[in-house]
Amino acid sequence: MQIFEECGNTDVEGVDSTNACYGGTAALFNCVNWVESSCWDGRYGLVVCTDSAVYAEGPARPTGGAAAIAMLIGPNAPISLESKYRGTHMSHVYDFYKPNLASEYPVVDGKLSQTCYLMALDSCYNRFCSKFEKFEGRMFSIVEADYFVFHSPYNKLVQKSFARLYFNDFKRNCSFIGKEARDKLEPFSTLSGDESYQSRDLEKASQMVAKHLYDKKVQPSTLLPKQVGNMYTASLYAAFASVIHKKHNILDGQRVVMFSYGSGLTSTMFSFKLNDGQHPFSLSNIANVLDIPRKLESRYEVSPEKFVETLKLMEHRYGAKDFLTSKDTALLSPGTFYLTHVDSMYRRYYARKVDDGAVGCANGPQVNGH
Amino acid sequence: MQIFEECGNTDVEGVDSTNACYGGTAALFNCVNWVESSCWDGRYGLVVCTDSAVYAEGPARPTGGAAAIAMLIGPNAPISLESKYRGTHMSHVYDFYKPNLASEYPVVDGKLSQTCYLMALDSCYNRFCSKFEKFEGRMFSIVEADYFVFHSPYNKLVQKSFARLYFNDFKRNCSFIGKEARDKLEPFSTLSGDESYQSRDLEKASQMVAKHLYDKKVQPSTLLPKQVGNMYTASLYAAFASVIHKKHNILDGQRVVMFSYGSGLTSTMFSFKLNDGQHPFSLSNIANVLDIPRKLESRYEVSPEKFVETLKLMEHRYGAKDFLTSKDTALLSPGTFYLTHVDSMYRRYYARKVDDGAVGCANGPQVNGH
Description:
Order of helices and strands of chain A: HEHEEEEEEHEHHHHHHEEEEHHHEEEE
Number of domains of chain A: 2
Distance between the termini of chain A: 11 Å
Structural class of chain A: alpha+beta
Number of helices of chain A: 12
CATH class of the largest domain in chain A: Alpha Beta
CATH architecture of the largest domain in chain A: 3-Layer(aba) Sandwich
Largest interface: A-B, 56 and 56 residues
Oligomer: homodimer
């Protein structure tokens, strides 16, 4: 908010939308609804999804990551919601949660979380399909979309998810599935829902028959999630950014189906329709501004020991007061805002690393008081 | 969410909107925008604002309270937003906040918080007025609205707030202010903004000249805030419910101006236009369902010692695991959901007190597992 205030703009609406990895999707929907509502005043909306995914010591720790994705929302966008086809599934479960308020680390029931994810995927897909069919008068199947983008805590789950949609289409008797694939999936057609979530054989068989479509429709979204690790609420949109980066020159007229999942649980399947757009809001310029190759290349490698040491410092400072942060900003990109100080009243102070290319109100390094 | 699931409905959209006492207003705006958006599917929206306002030992403790307000959102409502006149002011301040994650108690800078509130009120009012004037082609002043409802942490601030709007109208040269009032306020017309927030004499003078309008336009909203104490995010809507309760038979065609404030800070002034509506969504039936007199009468008085003891237990259990709550539900109203158990994994279990008049899916007492 300080950045807006410094520019003299305090007339900004909207507050945090909080719900695990689904928060960014909720904020996106809220912001798009605002633009479509009678109270919209013609200004752009801004959605920021950001999280750091950190885990206590153990097997999940190396899957962590961190990211922030910002989205500018307005009319006549090159990326637009197909608002009528949305399929949502919400349920009260304890699959992944943060009950210990003094710790940033989650309590995770990995097996339950994966089953919840796949059940939510099934439910959202069924709703998405039936809404599509109601409005379009024909069946939906995975061939109707050019890309599928999933919330991506780890890539194996993304592979399972797409195979699961394929299996759904098989059970729905979709005509694109040939005899060979049908024969491979037939043995699993009588499994109960719960059995089907647990069956390794089904997992293997469906991934195999879906492989050629996965490579075409899903693989382009996996770049950032594979490179950065889990990003919680930014994960889905980082995966989508990967598609823009890889395919921006052939996305005109294409449909991208998105699956957002937040533990707890909240989930929605929705779709984007894309068009080339006009500069500066063209897909090619968005890809240009994203500049993913440079960002990936500019990463700095630290040893696992150094990473563990950094997390120890984070644990120590989580919710703490009265400390100064390191003055060494060598590893920050120019323009980065960073925490300098938390005072005895827990008030937080930030500075910004000098960025010669900065635009707007900022003049060199800023210190934002409270 | 469990209540919806038990009824077979998991297709529910929307997540928590979190921002101190402003959260409920953010949720209301999000929900109304949803109904106005292209993705709305014809169902009602539901906004629940709830908080318990508790303070550490000290002078603020007796101002605490607790409440929940639920609002049903849909088209053709008897209470509708005048969406074009909204005035918002956001700023980054540490006036009231909860930095200690292990405690439910806030850190409060009372003097700063009051000044922030009044500055935000001025800013929102100016924006509200200029938007009104742009669309209506005439000046706005407090005579244009029949009622003013303020976020009400304590009644003295509500009195100051309305007097502040009157002082704003005086400075804007509004014609309804007679010579006598004008003479009383003239000595303060040259005060700087900051001086005017600190001046006790201005406070006294403006409250005096505004008194007759306060009694008419504000007093009806003060019933619940005075009786229940601070309710944080439910406070504004409990104050509005007081107006419905007291005036429902004469509200047709009237305008109610609302001022929502959340520390941190987020604030918006907006207005409702009311019409009698049609049963069951008539103002008189809403007043009937609210049944404020019975709810106030059914309160149970405890001694300050017992209250302090209860807060000690709350402190002890805040963020805790592995405990059972009291089995004594004698003081709960029939139909109330209550916490029974937090297990060793911090999972929470609820039951519902038997309510012979309950409708819907519930059959007697329920235990909602995770």
